[in-house]
Amino acid sequence: MKKILTVPALLLAVLLTFSACTQGTGSTASSAGADDSAAVTVNEADYFSDRDRSGAWDESKAVSITLNGNSAACDGSGVEIDGSVVTITAEGVYVLSGTLDDGCIVVNATKDEKVQLVLDGVTITSSGFAPIYVKQADKVFVTLADGSLNTLTNGGSFTAIDENDVDAVIFSKDDLTLNGTGSLIVNSPAGHGVVGKDEVTITGGSYEITAAKTAISANDVLAVADGAFQLTAGTNGMRAKNDDAGLGNIYLAGGSFKVTADGDGISATGTLTVAGGSFTVISGASGSDSSASQKGLKSGGTLTVSDGTIWVVSTDDAIHSDSSVTIANGTLNLSSGDDGIHADETVTISGGSIVINKSYEGIEGLVIRISGGEIDLAASDDGLNAGGGADSSGFGGWGGDSFGENSSASLEISGGVLRVNADGDGLDSNGSFTLSGGEVYVSGPTNDGNGALDYSSGTVTGGSLVATGSGGMALNFNSATQGAILLSVGTQAAGSTVTLTDESGSVILTYTAEKAFNAVNLTSPALLQGGTYTVTAGTYSETLTLSELLYGSAAGMGSRGGFGGNMGGGRGHP
To answer: Which of 46, 368, 399, 438 could disulfide-link to 415, CB 3.0 to 4.6 Å?
Structure first.
């Protein structure tokens, strides 16, 4: 059973061990291989129209509405005023200013009309309803006037005034755009902050939203191009939820986000794409023991990161997809009470910088492919786990992994730099492991129930690897086109340096282990059959000749270590 850490405990652990996962220094004389990352391209015009981005309006054609406590006044047509309820019935631009002590703005135009509400110093409180309610329109733009500060507050309850379940401070039944350069404060002590039953698009402005439920929610698509967001939510920070195929998507192209949520930080039942922006996400923020999902970024479909800076502290997985995760670029700093990165299907990493400070398992998926980027991770169990099942703690709430031995599972490393500090298996595949490029450094387990490497079959055709750990479950590759060495080196202390040199004394590989160890795996394209090499590990030193490419195996490691020499390795997954 997984031991899940709550966010307060995680925050303390992160502060104490922030740099711990940049463990063990290592270097290689050979190249890490080219980064074959390909940029993820999206046509942003599909998400943001020119009018979405503009936030401009023609003042000469705008209708002014002045709010006066328990009433309002208007200088044009298309507006009906009934006490403190202002209803807009026609297409146009409406500039609002002033205060409503207990009232609301209702948009009830035709289905083909667009309405723009310009908030220019507005304060609206609605004791039992939504301060802004879009009942019908083609699309409504809520524009924050430059330099303006606007506040919308619900008084603590939502009373139905028609057949719709209105439960947000801004509630729209049709497409909604928030734009402009001003500021908006939203207070929703009994419901959601902003809800759009179709698309919600945000292209600018500064937002401080506090909600008992979700801060920003959309049914079809939630798309953000820019803006500054401080979101505090009793459930999810940002959410797109729709059971229909192709909907329930989130696209984030820019902006600055600080999200504190008791549930998920950012959640999409469809796809979730981060193409830019800066994110600080704390999920499971209250520290309560909940059966609800408390993930950082979560998607039912593909989760893609093509750029941006993402900092997550989460009770559950920091990055999670019920489908696949693709990371092509960006900077990620993750701390999780469960998995750092989890995909039920495939995790693909081709670029970027990823630091997983704390996790149960660092990266987990049925298939894991790493072709570029720089990854530093710490895990209390496996560092990388290519498994054979789905994590039932996705949209259904908590649940243990059902990963087990599976011929479809694979771990493939062809480029990049990977540093792993794991208390369980360092690199674990319930199927195959293939190393064809890149640099890999593993500080593995100190207990004999796990190994630095663990797989059903292992192949090396390129790249370099240094792995240290316990010898109880150690194994070598099954097949190789370059030298692969497994040695028993006696007990060596944490901080001991492992060095591989050739016959001339030139250094091929060097690595400083983070934890105590007694077994070492080494492979490099510079290890040639028939060559003579020297391995030093702390107080241990041995010179060996590779009469075969595979030297040492699970049945016996190294000629002097008591595990035998020049033998193939590999073992079935326990």
So the answer is: 438
Contact, 249 vs 298, CB < 8 A? no
3-class state of residue 59 by DSSP: helix
Identify whether the C-beta of residue 435 lies closer than 8 Å to the C-beta of residue 33.
no
HEC profile of 411-434: EEEEEEEEEEEECCCCEEEEEEEE
Give how far Cα 290 sits from Cα of 9, 184, 358, Å: 15, 31, 20
Phi, psi of 45, rounded to the nearest 5 degrees = -65, -20
Q: What are phi and psi of 130, to 5 degrees?
A: -85, 130
In percent, how much of the chain has pLDDT > 90?
82
pLDDT of residue 36: 38
Q: How far apart are CA 468 and CA 94, in angstroms?
A: 68
pTM of the model: 0.91
DSSP state of 51: H
Ramachandran region, residue 156 (left: φ > 0; alpha: ψ -120 to 50; beta: rest): left
Cα 295–chain centre separation = 9
Asked if 550 and 557 touch (Cβ cutoff 8 Å), the reply is: no
For residue 494 the two structure tokens come to 């944490």
Which pLDDT value is given to residue 41?
Answer: 60
* Residue 162: band (very low, low, confident or very high) from pLDDT cuts 50, 70, 90: confident
pLDDT (average), residues 15-22: 41
Confirm if 180 and 146 have CB atoms less than 8 A apart: yes
So what's the pLDDT on residue 527? 98
Per-residue burial over 272-285, b = 16 or more CB atoms within 10 Å of its CB, e = otherwise: bbbbbbebbbbbbb
User: Does position 278 have pLDDT exceeding 90, yes or no?
Assistant: yes
**Weakest-pLDDT range from 16-30, 89-103, 539-553:** 16-30
Query: How many other C-beta atoms can be found within 10 angstroms of the C-beta atom of residue 297?
Result: 33
